[in-house]
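One-letter codes give the sequence; backbone shape is given numerically. An example follows:

. . .
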Amino acid sequence: MTKISVPSVLFMVFLLMGCSGEGPDAAGEGAGPLWVKTVSPRATDDWALTLSGEVRARYETPLSFQVSGRIIERTVDAGMVVEKGQTLFRLDPRDLEENLRAARAEHAAAESALALATSDLERDRKLLQENHISRQAFERQQLVEREARTRLDATRSRVELARNALQYASLNAPAGGVLTTVTGEAGQVVNAGQTIAMLAYHDDREVEVYLPEGVKPPEQGSLLLRGQAQRNITLREVAGSVDPLSRTLRTRYGIGDDSGDLSLGSIVKVRFTLDHTDSNTLGLPLGALDERSDGAFVWVVQDGKLHRVSVKVLDMGPERARISAELKADARVVAMGTHLLREGMSVRELDQ
């Protein structure tokens, strides 16, 4: 049997590769211009923007005690429906009761001091009429009586404050509603003003929506419900500034009187129709956007070559994006596969 050497085998392999043309450079520039799918941007006079929102109560009040103390009783849980005036928490009243007793004792002492000062003043008045004391001594006694009267008024106010503080030992619901959160626990020591529950009032529901920066809040919108049902919503409140972290604008839309079937905290979809008259506001497929480290841009085909045009993304829908850019009406923009492109690349459009 004839033996074939290794150098002979390698020579035959290289010879076959050279004849077939399947070398490393066969798929390079010699393959011809890249085929691309292009579209023309179109103006967006009316742009439907769909966002998610959260159902909230119009009035949501953090509940807290007006005095400090230790909670000894909690009568509610999160999610409970409460009525106006219902007791939710109670503090240990012993310290508050002692403060009230001390204030009443000071008041009693002030009353006695005023009675004594008044009696001395009447006596000095008679002595002055009989020229047994000087006017200077009489006027000094007048000041003592006035001071005692002022001290009595101060102690009367302290008694009223201590009485009110004792009443504040019970935290009652300011209105009927639903307790969305409850954090206070029996045995916990709380400070005055420390939030221990959140009350959502029984009133009209609203939808809280965060709009993208640069979008003017529409006056009207639609709440999308199950079964293709819709409900009109009306703008009620707009935040004074854009959130510095999310770069969005918080808005509140009223749902109306028939909003009781919407659960608090549920996530819903809302749709807005945005009006635009700016000729530079255009719509393109999402695949036409190329976002790299230096910002968003699109690829425009001119004379068979690619050129990059920077754009500003205003908002995006499920399939299309709304951009602001200086593009001609007959511009041809690459619709997909933008990550494969580079400046000056030769391309051919699929529809040509």
Summary: The first helix runs from residue 6 to 20. The helical segments are 6-20, 94-129, 135-167. Confidence is low (pLDDT under 50) at residues 6-29. The two ends are 61 Å apart (CA to CA).
